[in-house]
Amino acid sequence: MADTPAQPQVATTGKLARQRHQWHLLYYLLAAFNLLTVGFTLGLNHQMQEAFARSVEASSAWERRLKDYGDLINTAQAVQARCNNLFITRDVDRQRDEMRLAYNSFKTRLRTKRGEAIMAVETSESRKLIEDFDKLRVAVDSMVETAEDLFDRFPTDKPDEAARRLVNVNRDYAGIMAVLSELRLRVSGIQARIFDKQMDEFSRLRRMEFVVAVLVLVMLGSTVFYGGRVTRRMNADAEALDRAQHELVDTARRAGMAEIATGVLHNGGTVLNSVNVSASLVAESVRKSKIGNVERVAKMLTENNTRLAEFLTTDPKGKQVPAFLTTLATHLQEEQARALKELDSLTQSVEHVKTIIAMQQNYARVTGIHESMSVVDVVEDALRLNAISFTRHEIKVRRQFEAKPTATMERHKVMQILVNLLTNATHALDKPEVNDKTLTVRVALNGTDSVHISVVDTGSGITPESMARIFQHGFTTKPEGHGFGLHHGALAAKEMGGRLTAHSDGHGKGATFTLEIPIRPPEPKS
User: Fold this and answer.
1) Is the full-model pTM beyond 0.85?
2) Per the count of CB atoms within 10 A, which of 210, 344, 371, 473 is most buried?
3) Residue 79: which residues within 8 A CB-CB, separation 6 or more?
4) In this structure, are residues 400 and 486 in contact, taking their beta carbons and an 8 Å threshold?
């Protein structure tokens, strides 16, 4: 009978252990779902980056092809011009030789462009291109045959007979121009279809962004729904086994994980804002591309192909065509340069997000990776990450680098703090009541042992009540804020042996945040 009370206790303990294991498993499932969502987001950003790169490459390639067809026109014109020159020089052998050289050059160029165009399109389009290129070759061969007949009979022909033969050559040349115009229009149509296909791919990727948003909402909903139940169950288990000891361990563990999670979400989200802005700018640039103007010019030339020389030299619209093409080429090059610049910014931002995640995964280590580097270089990197926001909000940035010291530090911790300070300063300056939007970044030595990095804004300022709580966990003055950034920055500065301080003369009088870091990292505690 003495063993009877112990049996329910053993059963209860086993039941609690099974329940605790189930709730732990649920927690791991939620964590795995979180990692899956982050990985899917990064993969989506990578696909969008590749899609933009392919779009820029395809647009450049087809632009070069359209330009090359202009060279075909020049070469065909060189063949026809020798017939006209014959009536001036009356040197049959010389003009015949020059015509044949131009004809051989035209055939070589035609074979090259034919192969390039066919390889760049699908089978159904390539058959139509082959037909157009074959028409062009036949038209040029016909003109050359007519020209050969002119050269053969020129010494014995009367002037009016020679003139009629020259008219036949010019008629064949007009036919060549018509075929070339049709070819250019077909290529322009192919280019437009390829561009539409690329835009469809962009639309598909944007739809996938909504899928990611739904996944995040499901994750957050699941966390909120199960969070209370998990907490109550774990607290009950801890009280049943060893209330005091297990409550302490559980609280410490959850607090550490919350610090890691909030650091990743806040710092990663700050950089992803720059990713989103850069992606939107590239998409806007592609939508507003002037590539469609090429087709309009081709149509204008086709409509005036029978009097092309007169149109380009005497017609007011025709005179503007060469200058317009030059301006269009410059504009397209500028579009490409802007897109490549934004893609570089995307790559840098994604790399920074990956580094933040990797660093937070190793958060439990006593020391991070220390690197000896220029403090000014790290400050410039942080400014570059926020450059798009500065431009969008018309913020003037002033650099006051009183010194350019080299320090041994944890680079990405310093970057996280600076990016957060610059983002907060941008929000403070982006207020209707702020007229002077000036942001000043200072770097100065504090003796020989530490460096001061100050972020000074002329924005909305900080009230004395807010200043007393500015670094508290969860405190924020922004409606959409979480109160993690400055708190996390202060902790990170302390871990590096430095500190983060704030100063403001009050509401509407701007604010100054100063990060102090040692030149050499503190010795690790034994």
Assistant:
1) no
2) 473
3) 99, 102, 103, 106, 140, 143, 144, 147
4) no
